[in-house]
Amino acid sequence: MGHSVTPPSRLGRLSEGGGTMDAPPLPLEAGQPAVTSSEGVGEATGRSREMLESLLGPGGLVLLRDSVEWEGRSLLKALVRQAVLRGERVHVLGCEVSEEEFREGFDPGTNNRLVYHDLFRDPLNWSNTGEALPGGPLGVLRAMCRRTGPGPVTIALDSLSWLLLHLPCTTLCQTLHALSRQDSRPDDSSPVEHVRVLGLLHEELHGPGPVEALSTLAQIEVTLSGTGDQASAHILYRRPQHRPTHKIQWFTILPDFSLDLQGGSPPKSQPHPDPRTHPVDPATHLTFNLHLSKKEKEAKDSLTLPFQFSSEKQQALLCRGLGQATSHIFYEPDAYDDLDQEDPDDDLDI
Amino acid sequence: MFLELNDLLNASPDRAEPGKLTLLCDAETDGSFLVHHFLSFYLKANCKVCFVALGQSFSHYNIVGQKLGVSLTTARERRQLVFLEGLRSAVDVFFRAEGEAHPLQFLREAKAASLQPLYEFVREALKPVDQREAAWKSPVLLVDDLSVLLSLGVGAVAVPDFVHYCRACVCWHGKLRVLWRTPSPPAQRGRSLTFQYKIQDKSVSFFAKGMSPAVL
After folding, report:
1. N or C: which end of chain B has fewer CB within 10 A?
2. What is the pLDDT of residue B180?
3. Can you give the pLDDT at residue A269?
4. What are the chain B neighbours of A229 within 8 Å (beta carbons)?
5. Nearest CA distance, B87 vs chain A (angstrom)
């Protein structure tokens, strides 16, 4: 691309807010922000970084569960960018979109440090040009299992759904397990190095079985959702020997794939209406009048309903014989009216 | 093509965008008017069109096309249009010698594994043949419709694989669902608009929900 690669030693200071990049903070109980060594330029920026950092926590599988309505590729790209900013080696297995489309929006520095494995162009070797990656999707995954050098590695799978559709579920799970467990080598005294796998999963494509199988493998599960225009991430952290913890985060992904967080609840469309704002009066834009004047309201409130049995009504019924006004029928017969006084129902023996 | 639909989609034959995948989906209704729209739209836009027609015969599309101002016969003669008539071609498959490739080869297979022959047919069809072909604009693939492939026994994964390869190689439109999605900027969610429509003899009218004269 013609741009020089930024040396890794400087990358720590390129991240927003400055400050040193220590080991990522462990995710804490829901509601408590993780503490970093320096808050940085703005608290909002710091919190955005915290969320990404908490997702890029200890090694293992991070499952991003998205849907047609709430897509997850943007968050995947945000995490990829953050991993690059931390100085990690990042590999992307691209199956669903072209390399150009995946790289779109990243700055040149990020793109230079990103290693893209193209499974989009010819995943099934239909072109027979010899350009397809050897071994197909499984071969590529297994090749990633082999250690390629020291330092933390992030592997982004775009997408896990594509792999699940083309590989047997058991094979995929075993390979994922091997991939994310590279850091435990009992015979080695070298420090544990984290391998993180970010897997994008389109929930709607799969039955509950494979999704649950992948879910059990995941250390962190992010389910994307939202209301209206606002996206949210329901994050589930699983740590060994601890209870799982939940957190819901409302966020927006900016064009450069940094995050903008909105606190713990949706900013505009609240699930409970704000008591200070008046609910919209449905009778405002009608072509007829639904409102009552004061006099009409009083008349309405003082009206006795016809079938409501009150003591007054009881008295009225009992005292009818005392000359209280009952209803009168005034009848003016027409020339053609049949005024037969005989009751036609007389002969009915009821 | 239907002018009102052009307005709604903000499209015009002189601005046909390459590299876009549009899916058209109908459920409990018939969305085939959309296929006729896009077929005439791209022919008028001077695109090279490959039409994989699995649902109806050539003459059906031709008759409707004439109402919309395009002649499929002429387009086919001057090689702007490559038309795979699935209904007729499906019979040919069984009269071919073993080993001869056919786009609907999967019909002969006990376990219809892949649509690679169909993809290769599409790729060949949209490859520019000679200098005269360079006059056509971006290639367009239209498939009517993908669910027929499922009904014919193609596996559920084979169809997206076929779509995947077509998307990787050509600009195309298939019959599944209309949903706008922009890959960048990422903050912009997919927009979706809902309209009601009434099909007339040579046009389609679109209304905002509840605003059709038949409803008001």
Report:
1. C
2. 28
3. 47
4. 189
5. 26
Residue A182 tokens, joined? 């590279």
H helix runs in A107-222, sequence order: 108-113, 136-145, 160-166, 169-180, 208-217
Separation in Å, CA A13 to CA A22, A253, A256, B70: 12, 22, 18, 62
Per-residue DSSP letter, A305? P
Stretch among A124-138, B29-43, B202-216 having the lowest mean pLDDT: B202-216
Model pLDDT, residue A128? 77
Of A104, A165, A229, the CB nearest to B183: A104
CA B78 to chain centre: 20
Q: What is the DSSP letter of B183?
A: S
Place of tokens 């109908």: B26
Q: Kindly state the tokens that stand for B164.
A: 């995947």
What are B50's strand-pairing partners?
B82, B141
* Rg, Å, chain A Cα set: 35
Residue A170 buriedness (CB in 10 A; 0-12 / 13-18 / 19+): exposed
**Looking at residues B54-75, what average pLDDT do you find?**
93
- B185 — contact with chain A (CB < 8 Å)? yes
Count Cα atoms within 13 angstroms, Cβ side, for B109: 17
- CB-based contact B181 A74, cutoff 8 Å: no
What's the Cα-to-Cα distance from A137 to each of A123, A124, A128, A172, rounded to whole Å?
A: 7, 8, 16, 10
